[in-house]
């Protein structure tokens, strides 16, 4: 059985939390910094393990702003209370794929090797194919039951009405 390394993260105020299971320990995670204007301005550094697992939870949906940039295909989950986007989710039919912002890990990373990437040359089909290959493909997103699912760009097949224990 493959060893899974647990990486907990959250926005600054804790409204958006996640647990990311990866085949790599934190010091060996592959990290990249997108060169688009949004990612440069926010300073985010992303990681994804295609064999990894992401369990994410939103506490107050009214404090979430979904931001779509560029091709308008992926949602940055921005907490409007503190302004931090801990992860990005791309819905592909009934499936979800995700990236985590390693700057939001609870245990800070010593980052020396972060690869700069530019995806400006990709068309939408190429971008979607890359995400299927490289992003986290096992994603569970929990939203409070009082919020309508169609307010968020996710598949109802992967939502849970009761929070997942991340503690």
TrEMBL record:
It holds the Pfam family GFA. SUPFAM superfamilies: Mss4-like (SSF51316). Keywords: Metal-binding, Zinc. Residues 7-110 form the CENP-V/GFA domain. InterPro entries: CENP-V-like (IPR052355), CENP-V/GFA (IPR006913), Mss4-like_sf (IPR011057). One of its GO terms (molecular function) is metal ion binding. Belongs to the Gfa family. This is CENP-V/GFA domain-containing protein. It comes from Acanthopleuribacter pedis.
